[in-house]
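During the reporting period the student researcher (J.K.) took over the structure-prediction task from the postdoctoral fellow and processed the backlog of single-chain submissions. One of the processed entries is reproduced below for the supervisory committee.
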Amino acid sequence: MEQSAKDWIENEDSNCRDERVERLEWLTNNIPSKEYLIFHGGLIAKYLFEETRYCFVYAQFLATIILGFSFIEHTLTALFFASGRNDLEKANISKILSEANKIGWLSDEEYQHILKAKKIRNTVTHFRKPLDKETIDFKAVIENKHQYEIIEEDAKYVLQVMLKLLDKNAI
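J.K. obtained the following structure tokens:
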């Protein structure tokens, strides 16, 4: 017998509630504790931020990775545009990151963290041959973890990088 939409939602809510609460508590503890958060990419950047958080809490980890990295890209590109660097408006993220590091907007450590987040995003958004060293399946075998655990850890990493960038520009 097929479950009604309402029953399906109620079942999801009851079975996953504790994990969602744990993720929300982690998120709440890691959001910058500044008076004002600034979204340099405008309304889209704010929506990317909000939807990334929502996806993480609701265990939509692939979406968290993609949206979180999109927030990073929007924010850095918007900062360059606001500073008068119109030449970077449609630049790829590698160029944006390189320029941000070169002029000191990103420390070497921040730059490396964002590069790792980019690699995580690329693994999700770009096809890799089965068991390529960059696939989630390969990482799961090497680290002796379930694929879902790898995806969750990767989502949390991208989210942490996103939150550090947000914190850096908050007041």
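The committee noted the following: The mean pLDDT is 94.
J.K. will present the remaining backlog at the next meeting.
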